[in-house]
């Protein structure tokens, strides 16, 4: 059984290189970049930190984060994992299947990258070479912990969520990653600040007693000559692996004996992309279609590539004028979010081939308006949260984070609300589907310029209140003012967005036939 699974793993590894030369080249390039990133992650602390103690603290924290990620990521994203249930029909005991799956997991690209990182880490730390036996044993246990943890959490997620809720589980994982990124930026800024390594040292002391930090703590203790402490840390890792194995084998047996609840008959949901992740309701279906367009239609990608350019030119102009860097750091993100929301002010003309379907099927206008916001909100909200943490890091004062987040989310929601109205009120000719995104359509004259100008002016006017309160909270840093700016920015933006969806939907219901006529003329 194990030999057959190893052959299957090797075939899966080579699957990415089959097909066209371009696909094989992209696969090889992606793997080379990942391997280079693993090597760089191992050698970066030695290049940036001269103090051995500080380097050991950073190594332990990074190692803990990587092993913890190997433990948690498969719980939310397990589509690439072989499942024990796939081999239940073979004449093999569940124990043999469990052992073969566990052993063959080492023949995977993530495991190879983990080994590259561990090997580079061991070579790049000469201070650890005084205890080579402990070094090899600790890193072998770390790799075994990662492999075993990934197998157990992947199988548990399949048993708990199943195919029915797999999409919701992946979405929850993405939300958690987005929520954790500001925390990671904050932690990095805290460590790099004066006296920050004292806090990092205390955190590393606690992480050392977890199974994820114990392998690295064992190596550091052995290098310092404390073999008893190294043995204790290794015992923690070995105990965690034994516990995971105790969970793994019975769970595989239960998985092969359990029958998952079947999906509704007659519903084909495999291979439908975004349509698999949304329910069969008008707004959700329109959202799935818009997300598919944004992923495949070059007209939308060109607009996304152009959005970051405007803040760059604005920053250059302010920099030449002598504006301070801390003040300039607050400018790019709200401008980008404003342009991102404003870019949908003509989305009906961009999606003209589907308007007749909405009108003919009696789709409510508010469903059309709400569904078309999905790509902008799915890009803009994470960008607002992550970019706000980067902004306050550049400014150097994390106390203003609530105000900055409230301002950016408020600006995004207001711009989306304006687009909901103007795309129905003043559509103008857009590049047709299938044409080059750089082709200028006929008739895009004064009408397009007036619609763009009015939409931008109204978005700027409506964005003043959240920006005003946020700037006041940034200038006079107080907790109450920052919390008020956060709550007002989000609440005000939601109210304006709901009004924009309702007003835009009302206009859509009143002018559906006219919209069909106008868009057909454009085509």
- Taking pLDDT < 50 over at least 5 consecutive residues as the criterion, the unreliable ranges are none
Measured between the Cα atoms of the first and last residue, the distance is: 60 Å
How many β-strand stretches?
0
- Name the assembly state: single chain
- Strand portion: under 5%
Averaged pLDDT:
81
In DSSP terms (H or I, runs of 4 or more residues), the helix count works out at 24
Topology as a string of helices (H) and strands (E): HHHHHHHHHHHHHHHHHHHHHHHH
* Most strands sheet: none
Structural class: mainly alpha
Helix content estimate = over 70%
Description:
- This protein has 523 residues and is mainly alpha-helical.
- Helices cover 74% and strands 0% of the residues.
- The chain is built from 24 helices and no strands.
- Helix 3 (52-76) crosses helix 8 (196-207).
- The protein is globular and about 75 Å long.
- The model has no long low-confidence stretch (mean pLDDT 81).
